[in-house]
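Note to self: keep these together.
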Amino acid sequence: MVKRLISALMLITVSTAPAYAHLDPVEHGAFAAGFTHPLFGLDHILAMLAVGLWAASVGGKALWAVPGAFVATMALGFGAALVGVPLPFVEPVILASVIFIGIMVALALPLPTAGIAAVVGFFALFHGHAHGGEMGQADTFGYSAGFLVATALLNAVGVAAGIGLDRILATQRGAFAKRIAGGLAALGGVWLVIAG
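Structure:
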């Protein structure tokens, strides 16, 4: 079962790699352009899934607090980009978020929920800033609603995957499978750094 889950995760990861173009908001609408924006970048996908896995690994209030912190702070980063607040090293920090969050999931260190929320919030600021910087001529409300919904859904998929692994494989094997998934996310981040 673990081999199938890992194979499925790898297949999803590989199948998203060539999709780097973004939808035209004039042709497809601002919401669609915003919604698909995080889905067209492997760095965003891996980071957001890893956030959900990390939350599922901790459980309890982390299930909503960690993804909530990510989405809320991402909105702040988006707003900062819109008003012209510069944020250095946006792309390198986004790549670092994939590696760091993946490693944290793999290590399964016992950290408080507030600390995890602060860490993912820090990285979310950069993800949001990137979305704001790439908005183009899209309507602000529709575009931001789109990428925030997509982000929340990706976080939810990560949470659901983590919970599902615990239920399918039993708690101890599920925890190990989540750690493997975190390690794979981190390796995906390293691959993105090398490939970029």
